[in-house]
Each structure stands twice: as structure tokens, then as C-alpha cells.
């Protein structure tokens, strides 16, 4: 019998020995990962266990995260958070107007952005905030700008847990500002005018934030 086969839907399935070979690990290691629930259970066909490309991607991710210094227990926690994360459809919604560009990442690419800071707790917090969602074996960050800012702050020595906490507080203020602007416009115009006048709200908030930072800097220098 062939070690792997292609199903009607185009997905490929593998026997244990072939999966281990493709992942660059031993069968014994594969069994250990399965016992630790680092990978999902295989599909059973009688006494035969069939694995698929999702299992292969997960095994390659485990190897990459181990190479980056993560422990198996930490990877297990990440895997659990990843498997129970928000679906990308729930994260982005359908036809939601936005100026932000989502970014697709593998788990190891996410780890590279936040070296040593990607924990199950931080992953769950980011999912709760709506920053990231899952799409198969990929992670989708809702905003390239937020991803770049948060990773830059971590590189400057700010712990990711504090960056996420700050993001939560900023979200509260941003929601209040959005409500203020929306209520102002709707008192004098219609909902159809909101998209056209949206840049005015952004400009006002950016200008006020810039001046607030100047005031804070002067106060700190005194």
C-alpha cells in the first residue's frame, strides 16, 4: 500500500512513517507529540491512521518553535490557544469598511515578530482584543500598522503583555472618540455622509494626539 494518497478534494493524506519522514522527525517523536496532544488526532480507517497536510504544517511549526527556544509545554499551550482561537471570518467580518491591511503569518513568523514574548496568555489576549484570528494553519493579524507598531515596541524593550494592555486602553478611548464624532455628524447630517467625513475625524484626532504628546514631553522635561 502507498505511504500517502490524494483524496478527491485534492488534500493529501499520509501514513505515520511518511508523515514523520516529511516532517524530519522520527516515528517515536511523532508518537510522543501525539500523546502530548501537540497535534490533532489522525483520521482512522480501520486500524490505519491517516494524517494530512494540517498535521505536517503543525509538526514543522513545532520544530521551528523549538529552534527558537520555545519549550514543548509552551508549544502545547500555544497549540491549544491556536486551536480555540477566533476564526478569521469572525475577526474581519464581511464587507467591513476599513483602511487597515490584514497580514497573514505562520506561527513561527509571529514568534519572530515578538521573540520570546509569544505565550499562550499573550496569544489569547491578542485574540480577545480582535488583533489576530486563525485561518487553517495561518494566523491573520487584523492590521499591518498595529503589527509593526507593537513589534517595534517589543524590540525597544516594552513587554508584549504591557503593549496589549495599552492597546486595550487605547481601544476604549478610540471607541469613545468614534462615538463622539459619529453622534456629532448624525446630529447635522445623514449616515451616508459618515464615510465622506471620516477623514476629518482622523485628522482631528491625530492633531490632538500630536499636541498632547508635545505637552507631555514638555512636562517631562521640566
UniProtKB/TrEMBL annotation:
HTH merR-type domain location: 13-81
Higher taxonomy: Bacteria, Bacillati, Actinomycetota, Actinomycetes, Kitasatosporales
Keyword DNA-binding set for record: yes
Protein name as annotated: MerR family transcriptional regulator
InterPro entries noted in UniProt: DNA-bd_dom_put_sf (IPR009061), MerR-type_HTH_dom (IPR000551), MerR_fam (IPR047057)
SMART domains on file: HTH_MERR (SM00422)
Keywords (A to Z) from UniProt: DNA-binding
Amino acid at each position: 500500500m502507498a505511504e500517502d494518497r490524494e483524496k478527491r478534494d485534492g488534500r493529501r493524506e499520509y501514513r505515520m512513517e511518511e508523515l514523520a519522514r516529511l516532517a524530519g522527525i522520527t516515528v517515536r517523536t511523532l508518537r510522543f507529540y501525539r500523546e502530548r496532544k501537540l497535534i490533532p488526532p489522525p483520521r482512522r480507517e480501520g486500524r490505519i491512521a491517516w494524517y494530512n497536510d494540517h498535521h505536517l504544517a503543525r509538526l514543522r511549526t513545532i520544530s521551528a518553535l523549538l529552534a527558537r527556544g520555545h519549550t514543548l509545554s509552551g508549544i502545547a499551550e500555544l497549540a491549544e490557544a491556536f486551536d480555540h482561537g477566533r476564526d478569521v471570518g469572525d475577526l474581519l467580518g464581511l464587507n467591513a469598511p476599513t483602511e487597515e491591511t490584514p497580514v497573514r503569518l505562520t506561527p513561527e513568523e509571529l514568534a519572530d515578530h515578538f521573540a520570546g514574548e509569544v505565550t499562550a496568555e499573550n496569544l489569547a489576549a491578542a485574540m480577545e482584543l480582535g488583533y489576530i484570528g486563525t485561518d487553517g494553519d495561518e494566523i491573520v493579524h487584523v492590521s499591518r500598522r498595529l503589527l509593526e507598531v507593537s513589534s517595534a515596541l517589543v524590540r525597544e524593550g516594552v513587554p508584549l503583555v504591557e503593549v496589549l494592555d495599552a492597546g486595550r486602553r487605547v481601544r476604549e478611548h478610540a471607541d469613545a472618540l468614534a462615538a463622539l464624532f459619529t453622534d456629532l455628524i448624525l446630529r447635522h447630517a445623514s449616515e451616508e455622509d459618515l464615510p465622506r467625513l471620516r477623514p476629518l475625524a482622523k485628522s482631528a484626532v491625530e492633531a490632538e494626539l500630536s499636541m498632547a504628546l508635545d505637552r507631555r514631553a514638555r512636562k517631562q522635561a521640566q
